[in-house]
Structures are given as C-alpha cells and as structure tokens.
Write a structure and sequence with these properties.
64 residues, mainly alpha, two-stranded antiparallel sheet, 4 helices, 2 strands, 72% helix, zinc ion binding
Amino acid sequence: QTESARELRRNFYCDLCSKGYDRITQLEAHENGYDHQHRKRMKEMKQITRNPTAAVRNSRAEKK
C-alpha cells in the first residue's frame, strides 16, 4: 500500500474493532454489522460488571 492509501484508511477507522476502511460507506456497513455490534455489546457488558452505576451514567449521557 502507498502512504496515501494508509492515510485514507486512518480516516475511516473503527477504534473498537481496530479495522480501517477506504470509504465511509464501508465503515458504516461495518458499524451496522454483526461483528461490530457484538464487540460493542461485549464492551458494554464488561463495563456493567465492573461498575454498574458508572455504566448507567454513561448510557444516559450517550442518549442526550
């Protein structure tokens, strides 16, 4: 890959899954996919088991 291609992938990057994409549509498709949603739920579950009250506060803050 060229340097510009690597730079482009950094623009459309999913931090949760550590995956980079060439186009925003690919990133959006990934974010709506099973793998990303599963990782997102697992991360939330880990937060809840570590500190239940903080997880509730975080979810309320995200809804605003």
